[in-house]
Fold this protein.
Amino acid sequence: MAQHIESGEKVSIAWVLVGDGLRNVSEFAHLTPRQRPAALCPICREPVTMRLGTKKAYNAAHQPDSICGATQPETALHQNAKFYLAQQLQLAHKLEIDEPCIGLGPDYEECLSRRTTVFVANWDDTQVEYSLNPLRPDIVLLSQ
């Protein structure tokens, strides 16, 4: 079932950690609540409850007393975007930039409409919030 967010609707985290890794809660919509695996928040690692009803967008709910950053709407939206992008990058083999161009390119070839450049390729792993002391980028592509 496709889910969308209505204007003004609170955004909740839509990604969970289960035994085999990071998954979108929608992957468990076909299961009854009792059949669904135990899930953890990918941010705070606290247990969450998958909410897969018909009235609101699928999400994972923290306990009411949780202080996880994903319980804030802007943060949840940001986290959902990061996990989605990380998942898509994990499936990809290269990241290309498609740009409009007119005239001569950097290698002096003629470009009349669009040019595609490989930005990065052949990574081994994709990580969210990976520590590169003292930095912690949203998403990193790791190679060897």
